[in-house]
Design goal:
891 residues, alpha/beta, 5-stranded mixed beta sheet, 5-stranded parallel beta sheet, 25 helices, 56% helix
Amino acid sequence: MNIKKFFAQPQVKAAFDDYNIQERIRLVKIICWVAAIAMPSGAFLDLIDYPNYFHHFLEIRLASSFTSLILLGLVYTPWGNRQHLLISLLSAVQAQAYICCMIYASDGGISPYYAILNLPLLIYCLLFPWTYLMTFGLSMATVVFYLIACFLHGGMTAHYIFYSNLILLMYTVSFAVLGTYYTNQLRMREFMTRYELDENKKMLEESNRKLVELDKTKTSFFANISHELRTPLTLLIAPLETFQREKGHLFDGETRSTLKIMEDNALRLLKLINDLLDLVKLESGRMETRKEPLKIPEFLKGITLSVQGAARDKKINLSCSVGENLGSVLADRDKLEKILLNLLFNSVKFTPSGGKIELSAQEEGTSLILKVTDTGMGISEKDLPHIFNRFWQADSSAQRKYQGTGIGLSLVKELVEIQGGMVTAESRLGEGTTMIVRLPLEKTDTVAVEPAVEKGAAALVEPAAHDPQWLEKLYRRAELFPAMTAVTDTLRPDVFGSGAKPRVLVADDEPDMLRFLKTQLEKHYEVLEAVDGRQAVEKARQFLPDLVLLDMMMPEMDGIEACRILKEAVSTRAIPTLLLTARADDPTKMAALGAGASDFLTKPFSTTELHVRVKNLIVSYQFQRDLARQKTALESALEQLKETEGLLIQNEKMASLGRLSAGIIHEINNPLNYASQALYLLKTKKDRLPEGDREKYVEIVSDIEEGVGRVQRIVSDLRTFSHPHTGDARDLIDLEEAVSASLRFLGHEVKDKVRVEVDIPKEKKVLADRNKLIHVFVNLLQNSVDAMKEKKFEGEKPFISINSREEKSKVMVSVRDNGTGIDLENLGKIFDPFFTTKDVGQGMGLGLSICYRIMAEQGGGISVKSEKGKFAEFILELPVREPATTSKDEF
């Protein structure tokens, strides 16, 4: 922060002024004491330099010392405290005045005592927190006193020494003024730093005080709430046990299953509450150890037997070994039991199926060593130092595989330490973990009395309600209750009914919650089950349910991620998703909706709300699905109608064209015959004309003949188009000869104008009608010539290539030119009748349509490829032999 801004704050300025006052008063006292002592001690210098003036200078020094003592006394008075600046200035001025008196009495301007004047300037100005004005005043007073002393002594004799001394004195004055500035800056920075540190210290102390109070409040709250929760839990568990012991027909199997779920979860909650209470007692120092004789072999075997059920469920080999010399010891049974049960259940949780767990005890000097060794997943080296921290978990994400609160190992550590022991862990990731508990060993010969509940599975027997020790036994049952899911509960096959019910996929990693949700929904829906998010995604893709019900926190993949993946896939995008969450905060709700969730349900929830939300989502989804199906059906029907309409229009168009062509042929053929005969007669009359008129006459007749020929070709095209099936005249013909004949028809069009390359093997035979095939080639070549006439060639020449290749039983003939090409939007229409891009009078648009129909008749086909402005390529597909047919006599 800027110093000016910092000291502009009123509270800071007031604090700084107060600090300066206290510091000045302290320094005035010190300087007055130093001046009172230092001045008489300088008499030794007088004895050396001026022995003749020794007694006189001693009197001056004592006078200065006496003055300093008087000023010191004033400082200790209230007036002196208020006037400390004036006293400090008087103390410095009187010292300088007495020194100048000695200069006057000795050698004046050449006296070496001028150097003593520098000391008070440096001491007062650099060490004392003066203002610039006070420093300047003392400096000017010193210079004036020195000049007066020199003048009164006898003038300016040996003036060069005097001026040298005066210059040195002025240097000291300058340094004193500058020193005052920088010293004050340093003091201000020092104060700013100290002030900020003090403020931060106060804030930290206040924060620490609040944290201590908050910690006490938290501890008190946990203790109170745990005690308060125990009462309703006890009142819940007692009736549940009574119902469970009911042997009549009051409850059916489904109801008893629900009662068992309620009891198991009540015991799980009771165990968590007991662990919290133990932590509170340990933290407050109210937990005491109660040592009693304990037979270690029998005790450890009982503990192992209590955990055996959970280990057997996961197919884990659990064993126990005890050293030979271990018998009865003094130990706190309850605390030791909690320690070992926590460690064993932890090992069972993190050890995969087929693994091994060993509980061992041995004597080592004066210590009892208890070890729990497993072949589980192990702990990484970076996590190992933190495993005994309270509420710490290696994986704290929403999709962690192993659930828990992070209390177990921290409770173990504190229970071990309260007994004067220590607990350590050795582990390698992927190989296993060994937990080592070291306790003080106190052997005893007293016979240990084992409680009845310790013997094997008796620990899990439900006590009678009238048992006076019922509450104590209930707490023990809760302690022995495994805080993990049985593997057999997570492996349930999907069973489907007739398929008439809507299908709901329920995903939750808690078997009890999964069972409860299935029980609630299976009356109205077919229920699929998944135990994590990944399995839910796989089953949703496989079975396409009508609703996916996802828990928010699941291993492998949490509910939000599973929902996001389902919404990204096309097949599952429309399926509604309902998220279950124990968090009711807005960020969680926004994250659920942002992932594409259709709705969410906050735990705890009522079954009525569950049914209503599920029903609404499924009904809405079914409506959407029905609408989508109807939309698809309507679109399909509309498409079929469009196709039918197009076919009808095309058929009607073709019929109309046929009728029109027949009429035109009938009406035009006779006049054409007359015109042809007349042209023949006209040609024979040219010899009767004068020699000069014959050339013009022949030209006119030729023009008329060309026009008639054009009309004849149009009529021929119309006849071919309107009567396409005029009999099958196909035969094996020479493809090269047909192409050559076609080129001869257009010789006058291509000669010296277009380069034509033909690459067709000699004697290549195809099955076709020769005349019709030539008609096709002529049409294609004429179109190529017309296209090249419209293009301006730069750097290339007009070019037509005709080549062939054989594919299976077909011959593919390519006719390619480098003309103007065909627009992309016209490629699909060029084989339609009467479609043309030529100007009026240049064509009727029947040529390519006739070619298409001819190729279809020949058992082949025609296709086109083109790029506007670069090329056009027509590909003819022709058979090389008759299709194979089976004779009636061949079997």
